[in-house]
Amino acid sequence: MLWGTIILWIIGLLILYFVIFTAVKDGIDKSEVGQLIIKKYGIKDEIVLVSNDDIEKELEDEFKK
Fold this sequence. Notes:
65 residues; mainly alpha; flat; transmembrane helix; membrane; transmembrane
């Protein structure tokens, strides 16, 4: 019985977290300040992935200088 209560609390808190996260993000994006930031800095959607080989090559080039 205790484990069921704990699991229900965890599920409820996770749902609450996602609702608050979505509301805050949506509110910031639609606010005037959010619009100004998007106009000034743009939106960064792309994440550049760098392989370990590229990092090692760049470090080797730096040490050769």
